[in-house]
Amino acid sequence: MIEKQFKTLREQLEIMKSKGMTINDEAFAKKVLLRENYFFLNGYRYPFMKSSSDKHFLKGVTFEEMYSLFLFDRAIRNVFLKNLLIIENNLKSIFSYQLSKKYGYKEKDYLRAKNFTSDRSKQRQVNDLIKKMKRQIRSNSNQHTATAHYAKNYGYVPLWILVKVLSFGIIGELFSIFKYEDQIDICELYHIDVSTFHIYLPILSNYRNLCAHEDIFYENRTQKVIPDTIYHKVLEIPKDSEGVYINGKNDLFALLIIMKQMLTDQEFADFILELDGWIQNLDYNLHTIKIEKIMNRMGFPNNWKQLMNIERSFGNE
To answer: Is residue 33 a contact partner of residue 63, using CB atoms and an 8 Å limit?
Structure first.
């Protein structure tokens, strides 16, 4: 195994130069590399390379241009995260309301195994998740302000308080063990069928975690693939030779389709406006490649903004 050696900032710049990159301001480039990390920044080089086999940069590519893609990714990551947090909060609110209304608001009531699926294959999962939630109550009774307040003054922690300290992953797992009728009640609020909702939740959780850890975001692909929707059809997304839509299945545009269905119309319109602003800003800063190359890596079709104007529809295509 070849050992990776430490490189000084100057050596890092020399590597970039050797690949054909233009460094207009070395002092600026060194400052960026020190603050942002050569390894992370270098992950944005691929759209600017001649080909997958030729690792040299296209003629004229500058450090500033590659850095603009890095900053763009950070900006849209934050825009997506802001709206993912809205969805996360909505789900927690809806889940806690539906269960509290039906099964009670004290943990001794709502954390009973009989409140969840009777599917024998999921009984271990039910018991494990109940234990996780009880553990969260214990661990947050002295740390989380609201949890501590209810535990100390009332002797119980209502579900609408507990959900605040549950991760998005646990929320998704919680939905998977709900009784089917409870799943239907929740899905009807979003006009999404249950089977599709099961696919959406882990995708949302995956992207939420990706945002929190500052990983490369714009060209991420998920293992799960979303079902075909009316949005694919109305936008006339082209299909490949196997009849599969080439955009909006497991890319960032697929996430946008999910969020279209889970945000309010106004929230989604604001989201699109902010996202488009950052895309236009990147377009201005690109000189050796076209913005379409980045949009393609994101999975965004040319008419992506029309998604905002398509009416919501229950079910899939």
So the answer is: no
